[in-house]
User: What shape does this take?
Amino acid sequence: MISWSGVVAQVTELALAVLLAPLLTGWVNQCRAWLQNKSGPGLLRPYRTIRKLFAKDAVIATNASAVFRTAPYVVFACMLVAAAIVPTLATDLPFSIAADAIALVGIFALARVFISLAAMDVGTAFGSLGARREMMIGFLAEPALLMVLFTASLISQSTSLATTVERLARMEFAIFPSLAFAGVAFTMVSLAENARIPVDNPATHLELTMIHEAMVLEYSARHLALIEWAASLKLFVYSCIGISIFFPFGISQGGDPLGFAYALPALVFKLAVGGALLAVIETVSAKMRIFRAPEFLGTAFMLAVLALLIHALLET
Assistant: This one.
């Protein structure tokens, strides 16, 4: 039965995801600039960029099909659905029963397919190059992400993210070696999926290195605004997945209004710490060659499989 507290939590989570996602991107960029002894663009720079893009007129190639025009809306909608599935403030979410951890990976894959098809639709060299690289990254990252989610699912005996988070939060404090391996694997996958250093550099426009930027070079105005917003949402969702699985403390359970009140500042604190750590990782890392990405993600998959084996052999 759907409760009013669950509906409020669901609406609040979606609103926070949409509003805070650009702020998280700005926070990461600001921390990265501070670590490099620079002043930085400011926390609100992503909001100003999105507002400026929405005010411009879109320029679309004459040979662009409906796939190119609809891809930004599909990608943005996929990120919204993913944000609705992941429990960030409470576990009694009405939408969580519609999809589990496996479906979540499928939603990310759907967004990747559409943006890759749109990149190849116009027929530019950069778009096709970026699409091929993006599909290669996804082909290697998705299995590793599934193994990480399966590790948490085996511990909680459920593939539902809400149930997994609730059971992990209720467990007594204990060190799970499987979650330690899974956490390292998830960090590596998150860096690759969000086009961050060392796999990709979101600030580059060099044709030999860019992946995500190569796919969106032909977009402008509202279409580019939606893609940039969706990229921020994806980083926000991945951050919330890591928080929910590995640091579930502070998330409200069972419609507790007092717990829900504490969940918001706890979420903001954890996102701030996670964004600062991401900036540190990007600062101390160097951009690797694209041909080294399979080794990087292959290591992530190996660590995720080790997490599964450790749970099956030592923790059951």
